[in-house]
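Work Package 3 (structural annotation) set out to generate three-dimensional models for the target panel prioritized at the project kickoff. During this period the team completed the workflow that converts sequence records into discrete structure tokens, so that structures can be stored uniformly alongside our sequence database. As a representative example, we reproduce one entry of 293 residues exactly as it appears in the project archive.
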Amino acid sequence: MAHKRALEALDRILKDLRNDWRCFGGAMILLSGDFRQTLPVIPKSTAADEINACLKSSNLWRYVKKLQLVTNMRVALVNDTSAEVLQAIAVNRERAILAAKNKDVNDLNFVIQNQIVGTLHTFKSIDCVTNEEEATNYPTEFLNSLDMPGLPPHNLQLKIGSVVIMLRNLNQPKLCNGTRLVITKLMANVIHAMILKGKFKSDEVLIPKIPMISIDMPFEFKRIQFPIRLAFAMTINKSQGQSFSVCDLNLENACFSHGQLYVACSRVGKPSALFVLAPDKKTKNIVYHKVLY
């Protein structure tokens, strides 16, 4: 999903730092990826714009030597019969519901959180424009109504036991964008949470309110809020790179971009761990992707 310009910028920086005008300053760079997955996200773009942003459209692609992996590690780990792996799978609660659009995800998260017993806590953000001269043009009430991808909502509602996902890097690699956590304690200005998966699984962390600036609008505005969103369900794009023991796929609204169906179906290591809700006309593609296993 990385834009080709990110790699081109790295190429220029390494040439300057190493004082060597060969590709990447003469250094060998190892990239990992799968071009069947989702392409770079370009807001308000066409399919041609997304393809043009892909690494294969860069002038650096001619220097790339392709090495193909032959083992599907998700499948290999599921089929591993060693006691350690079987125990890890048995205690894993690493599961998620995936959907193509943010609206579907928000609706599912709202329904699921309402099933949790406990008090609902509400945290409201502080919003303002970065340019004080534009403050009269964009009142606070209007800024509060904005719900932008990549930003937490103005009205963040949480319960103890809610599953959330980080939207910003706070303490890499422990607490970074995409980390899934479960809420253990809620306070006015800090949240106690436990990491659900990865190298730091079960570690307790503190999440503070931080300022976040949106540049996806004709104007810049700052939102001070906890950098998290509910993540019982998440978008297919956000799930790329993650592994789950059980994955539920909601396709009531169809996938709309290259690679989304492939990414959703390949988050688990065996077909029996994938559950799909889809109209009959969409089940043919799902069966085909299950055969890929």
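Residues 83-92, 286-293 have pLDDT under 50 and may be disordered.
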